[in-house]
Amino acid sequence: MVNLTLLGAFIPTFLFVSVTPGMCMTLAMTLGMSQGVRRTFWMMWGEMLGVGLVAMAAVLGVAALMLKFPDLFQWFKLLGAAYLTYIGIQMWRAKGKLAVPRLGTASVLLPRRTLFSQGFITAVSNPKGWAFHMALLPPFIDSKLAFWPQLLVLVAIILLLEFGSMLLYASGGKALALFLTKTNRLQYLNRIGASLMFGVAVWMLVG
């Protein structure tokens, strides 16, 4: 059903992409501190729905294009490797700044519908998310195996990794915020992620 070799590279790649501080993770941490972890779950459901839709739509669009032009698969591998390299360079150069709310400030509890829509809109309106899934997901799908089972398994893994990462940020609260606001620590985390991106890019080129 799934190519285990591809899956072995897929999981650590998307794990580190998910856990690295970004729009959704920072939002989860911010809401976890201001709204509480339980209420932040509503944002998480909306974010995961958005990520799932973006991943499915991106891959289906690329798949439809590759059915008409089969030779494009190799080009998408090159595109994926190039995009990973670009992400790696951006992470390596990142200054290590994280926007977090002021600790100890009071906040108004938001309606559940607002939290859900906030997560959904954050996921679907992020152009980097679309580009990432369009460039990176197709190379992890084995053309010799059935398409739909592979896609569903990969998207399910992405959602599990996203959920686990957001839960970590939401429940980490003040301690995680204080840890990540230290420039050298966040920069160190970014450079580990950048090294992983470079490694997977090379693997995609030689595989």
From TrEMBL:
InterPro entries: LeuE-type
Keyword terms of this UniProt record: Cell membrane, Membrane, Transmembrane, Transmembrane helix
Bilayer topology annotation: Multi-pass membrane protein
UniProt GO MF annotations: homoserine transmembrane transporter activity
Compartments it resides in: Cell membrane
Highest taxon of the lineage: Bacteria
Record-level GO cellular component terms: plasma membrane
Residue spans crossing the bilayer: 6-29, 41-66, 72-89, 145-168, 188-206
PANTHER family, per the entry: ARGININE EXPORTER PROTEIN ARGO (PTHR30086), HOMOGENTISATE EXPORT PROTEIN (PTHR30086:SF5)
UniProt protein name: Lysine exporter protein LysE/YggA
